[in-house]
Amino acid sequence: MVPIERVERVEVAEGVTLARRVRTADDSSRPPVVLLPGTGMTACDWGPVAAGLAATRTTHAVDLRGHGDSDRPGTYSIDLMAADVRVLLHRIAGGHEVDLVGHSLGGLVACLVARARPDRVRRLVLEDVPIPHPRPAATLERPPGRLDLDWAVVEQVRPEIDDPDPGWADVVRGIAAPTLVIGGGATSTVPQEHVREMAQTLRDGRLATIEAGHLVHATQPEQFLALVTAFLDASLDA
Predict the structure, then answer these.
(1) CA gyration radius for the chain?
(2) Which of 18, 84, 180, 225 gets the highest tally of CB atoms within 10 A of its CB?
(3) Which candidate, 19, 27, 93, 85, places its Cα nearest to that of 54?
């Protein structure tokens, strides 16, 4: 039976509380998994994957600051999101390790967390996450209607991605955790050569491709879940 999902809130900074959707597995012997979504996406977008993982491990699907049910403080950056997640990991697991899965923006956040806290991140999965390279600045026009994020997230974080810090490769080289990089293949909006570069730059990286476009876990959840589960379980079952 798949564990029932519950919503919990955790204060991670003054005036900033993150919402997360938790499924607690009966088997507590495996490290918990923390799932970080991309820009404009929320914890709900991990539904089928979180449910599948929760058959054998507790899962925490997170709304990053400014997204979903988390607080919208009006100030956003990849560094601030990573600082939030570092506090969250402490609240979730204390001094124990977790497995960290990040899609797109959530993957960049996960890289910073794994680099800063090698003692907390046992294994890392990056879904269609490239080494950031400069690209033409996008025209940022807010879509009409209700959004699942504070539009200021896009206004403040997108420039960081379009004109990235040149130190990103050093961040990635500093990640100690074994890492699975899953590319979305030819139909992805992300240059796959930059996704391959991510896998090659990591100390202990491996690359797999699922021809699903940028939203791999949403488009091909069964294939994604099979790859991720096998990777996370490999050292535990050895």
Answers:
(1) 16
(2) 18
(3) 27
The token duo for 30 is 């495996």
Residues 6+ apart with CB under 8 A from 227: 180, 182, 208, 210
Which domains, and CATH codes, for the chain? Answer: 5-237 (3.40.50.1820)
Report how far Cα 143 is from the mean position of its chain's Cα atoms. Answer: 24
Burial 114-149 (b: 16+ CB within 10 A, else e): bbbbeebbbbbbbbbbbbbeeeeeeeeeeeeeeeeb
Q: Which residue is it, tokens 């950056």?
A: 77
Which amino acid belongs to residue 85? Answer: V
Half-sphere exposure of 30 (CA within 13 A, CB side): 24
**Per-residue pLDDT tens listing for the chain (238 residues):** 667 899 999 999 998 999 999 999 877 789 999 999 999 999 999 999 999 999 999 999 999 999 999 999 999 999 999 999 999 999 988 889 999 999 999 999 999 999 999 999 999 999 999 999 999 887 889 999 999 999 999 999 999 999 999 999 999 999 999 999 999 999 999 999 999 999 999 999 999 999 999 999 999 999 999 999 999 999 775 5
